[in-house]
Structures are given as C-alpha cells and as structure tokens.
Amino acid sequence: MPLHVADTTMFWGPVSGGVRRYIGAKQRWLQAHGCGHSTVVPGPAAGADVAVPSLPLPFARGYRLARSRRRGAAILQQLAPDLIEAGDPYTLAWSALDAARALQIPAVAFVHSDLPALAARAGGLRAEAMAWRYLRRLYAHFDLVLAPSAALCARLRAAGIAKVQRQPLGVDTACFTPGARDPAWRAQIGVAPWQRVALFAGRFAIEKNLPQLAAAVAQLGPRYVLALVGDGPVQLTGEHLRMLPFAREPQVLARALASCDVFVHAGDIETFGLAPLEAMACGTPVVVRARGGLVELVDDSVGAAVASADPSAFAAAIHATCERDRAALSRAARQRALEYDWNAVLPTLLARYTALCRARHPAGRAELALALAGDASLTMS
Q: pTM of the full predicted structure?
C-alpha cells in the first residue's frame, strides 16, 4: 500500500512563505513517487485539502489558530493517514498526537520556528525558560523531531529534547534559476540603470530586523536601493526603499531574486534560510547575519555572513559583495543551491517516514535505527 502522509500546521496564510512552500513541494514530490498526501490547516485557507475551524491570530497578517484540539484530531483521524507531521508547536500539534495515538501511527514534529528565541525577545529569560519547558513536554510524545539546521538540532538536544534529526529544506532549482533574470524588472520598480538593488523577500516580521537593513542601505547613499518583497506588521518608509507586494507565484519571486544585485537578510533567529537559498539558486549573491541556520548556508564563496548586528557592518558587507566578481559568486551560489534541490533532500525524508511506519512492527525496528542514523551530512549535530 502506498504511504499516505498528512501535514498539519498553522503557518498557512495569505502571505505565508517557507513552511507552505515546503509542504507544497513535499506534496508534489510524494505524489509523483506514488504516495498520498493531505494538508490540514486552520481555515478558511486556500490551497489546503482540509480546513479546521479557527480564529484569526491578532497582528499575524492572516495566520489563524485552530479552535479545538479535539476537532483537529477528529479531522486527521478521518483522513486515515499512515503518518502525521506537525509543522508548529501549537494546538494542531496536540491534535496530531491525539490522532496518531488513536490510529496507532507515527507522529513527526518539524521545528520550523525557534519558539524559545522568540519568547526571549518578547519576555526575557523567564519567557524563554517557559517555552523550553513547554517544548520538552510536547516533543517528548513524538516519534521523531526534525529540524532544518545543525544549529537548531544542537539547541533542541541541549535543552533535553531527544529523537532530534537534521532534515534540511530544499529549493526548486528549475523554477529558481539564473534564467529567471529580467532586465525590465529593475525599471518596473523605479530603479535607475546606475543603481544597485539589495532585495529582501519574506514576512515583514520583527525578528527579520528590517529596520537594520533599511539603515544599512541608507548609509550606502543614493546608488543603493532596498527592495522588500512581502507583507507583515513591520512597515518602512524612505526614498531608498521599494515596497513590493507579496509574491504568491514562485515564478514572480524568482524573477525578482534573479534580477537584483544582492539578496540581504538580517534575521538572527532563522532556523534555515529558505529565501536566501532560493536567491542562490537564481545565481544571486547573498549577505546574511551569521546566526542560526543562515550561517550554515552562506560563506564567503557565495556572499557574506555578517557577525555584527550593526547596520554599518551590513552596509560594508553589501558594498563589498557588489564590488566582487559577480560571475564567480553566481556560479558558486547556484552550485550551493543545487545541493539542496528538493530531489536531493526529500528522498531522505521519505526514507525516515517509511522506517517509522515499518517500525510499528517488530521486524522494522532495525530498519528504523538505520534510517535515523541517516547520511552524515544530514544528521550532523
């Protein structure tokens, strides 16, 4: 019987990005390889298979919170999957556990956000400690906990969360390609031929440190423009800024990523860095903060990882990157991204799913141990 996977997450909204792209890419890949897939998210939600009753999350620009753990579990049970993956640590994660227990199937958690770091930013050390206690209690019930970067895996293990494995995200290198470059894009956003464009794409959230990027580009003077593609609670103004709408279609985003001079990201609690990876797939050099998952993707060969949070440090890195050999940076960036093509990373994920399902039978336990050992490049701590 083909494997049927159900994904559930609250990170699904009108302007959602990385998690939705991951689930969509996984769904297409699994179905192309003979597997079934269902998506269960708080509704109403376009593009999902099933929507659970929900309430809008204040100040979240479209994200919604499931209203009932019990109702979410009942919907998941009705789908009768072979495995459930929870993509957030909130109500639907508990629904996933309840449904998995009732169906006697594996439950997997994928850690897409660094909740303790977000809690620390909002409420200090006490809030961070509470978040870790909550995650330890939640993730103790899952058969496997996946995280997209070695840095996050190390944080989870250090906090006492077991059964953690690294599972990188990926990129569609056929869509995100240097061939998406369009010289007309720059004129369309109001950029003169002599200007350089630094671009950010993603949610305009506090943790992305967009004011820092805006200040950095402002320091570089009129030759530089900062284009921001997306939406969110943080709104900026300035003559050196170009605020562009959220790009729902990946081809639209690829056009922007391939047509700018450099991609920039100042987030310091990123768990992976999907947008920088998509920029690299387009052959665009990247300048990011040297923190979290970003530092694992970016080095001097593809751009710059900035150690300091000072806008002056970002300004210097952006200018220095733009002064380097663009062709060499582009080749290296593209090559780095090809290592993370979805066709390269998803077979490992499917192998883990299959081993977990087979391990429900005694004969499959040895296979599970082997699959969780995995490839050294994917499970390094």
A: 0.91
